[in-house]
Amino acid sequence: MKAVRIHEFGGPEVLRYEDIPDPKPRQDQVLVRIKACALNHIDLWIRKGLPGLTLPHILGADIAGEIAEVGEYVTGFKPGQRVLLAPMHFCNHCASCVAGLQNLCPEFTVLGNRVDGGNCELIAVPAVNIIPIPDSLDFNPAASLPLVFTTAWHMLVGRANIHPGQTVLVLGASSGVGIAAIQIAKLFQARVITTAGDETKLDKARALGADHGINHYRQKISEEVRKITNKEGVDIVIEHVGSATWEESVKSLKPAGTLVTCGATTGFAASIDLRFLFSRQLSLLGSYMGTMAELRQVLGHVFAGRLKPVVDRVFPLKEIRAAHEYLEQSRMFGKVVLNP
Question: In what order do the strands lie in the sheet with 212-215?
Answer without folding.
Answer: 212-215, 191-196, 167-170, 234-239, 253-261, 283-286
